[in-house]
Design a protein that fits this description.
The protein is of the alpha/beta class. The protein has 15 helices and ten strands.
Length: about 300
């Protein structure tokens, strides 16, 4: 398994009590089929207890971590049976990244929405067609089952679980202490806009455009104008842009504006209205709605959490 996929969520749960004294205490246990030392990809070994030492209760959360070992484990009939039967007694089940394959093997994703690491989405969909695999979100909640994208997304999933249990204020303070962006909304893309731009460098057709957009946020960035710049029809441009970058042009523009606004909110004391104008939002209200949709919090909340001037 990936060590960070275990250690990241554990750290979130361990620190929760500091921000919710008397009600934020999580008791965490590591489980494996037989117990005893289990290797991680880093070489660090963990010391879990056997599965049969725990009988999940309604207050419990079962979390399946990421790691290449999950593919072999998904064929372990005894483990799959245990997970399928015990999950019914737990309050909720969560998994990080490729842990989705084990949940799917146990029938826990049947007919549900789910996400895994973006490189593994097609593999999961082909293997389990009944699962509604979503390519982009950081995490997805479908009833009592929570799934997340890869590696550090497990931290954001754990923060979301803490927010569900203890409230948004506790999750915000906890995330700030852990120096992670809090709280990344489930619908937020698995990719940062900068990483998208770097990936686009390998595609000559769009190598220039994703770099150009962040420097012209106050310009008219409708699809028609971007298509003109790329020398294509709007329809061809939109189709090619999605194939190249994994994002629609409108979403790429929105993400670039949000990213620029985040930097200004944290690095300057400019009024929110000024930040909205500098980043190309038509109004302050439009920026607020976009932040709420993309990040799950308002610009003022983001500034209060992350401003260097607070």
């Amino acid at each position: 398994m990936k060590l960070l996929d275990v250690a990241g969520p554990l750290q979130v749960f361990c620190d929760a009590e500091e921000y919710a004294p008397g009600r934020g205490r999580y008791e965490s246990r590591l489980l494996s089929a037989q117990g005893g030392p289990v290797a991680t990809d880093t070489g660090v070994r963990l010391d879990p207890v056997p599965l049969d030492s725990l009988r999940p209760e309604p207050r419990d959360t079962l979390i399946v971590p990421d790691g290449n070992g999950v593919y072999k484990t998904s064929g372990d009939a005894a483990l799959v049976t245990w997970l399928g039967s015990r999950a019914a007694h737990a309050g909720r089940v969560a998994r990080t990244c490729t842990g989705a394959f084990l949940l799917a093997a146990a029938g826990l994703l049947e007919g549900r929405r789910a996400v895994t690491r973006w490189r593994r989405c097609d593999r999961l969909q082909d293997w389990q067609p009944s699962v509604q695999v979503e390519q982009d979100p950081i995490f997805v909640q479908d009833g009592a089952v929570w799934t997340s994208a890869g590696v550090t997304a497990g931290i954001h999933l754990a923060l979301a679980l803490v927010e569900h249990d203890l409230g948004r204020d506790v999750a915000l303070e906890l995330a700030r202490n852990l120096v992670v962006h809090s709280k990344r909304a489930g619908g937020q893309s698995q990719f940062s806009q900068r990483l998208r731009r770097q990936a686009a460098d390998t595609e000559d057709k769009f190598a220039e455009l994703p770099k150009w957009i962040p420097n012209h946020l106050q310009d008219d960035l409708r699809v028609e104008r971007l298509a003109e710049r790329a020398g294509m029809s709007s329809r061809t441009f939109q189709r090619a842009f999605v194939a190249c970058t994994g994002s629609t042009p409108a979403r790429a523009v929105s993400a670039a504006r949000v990213e620029a606004a985040r930097e200004l909110l944290s690095e300057t004391s400019d009024p929110v209205k000024t930040v909205a104008h500098r980043c190309g939002f038509a109004t302050e209200e439009q920026m607020r709605r976009t932040f709420q949709r993309e990040l799950g919090l308002a610009p003022s909340d983001y500034r209060r959490t992350w401003s260097r001037h607070s």
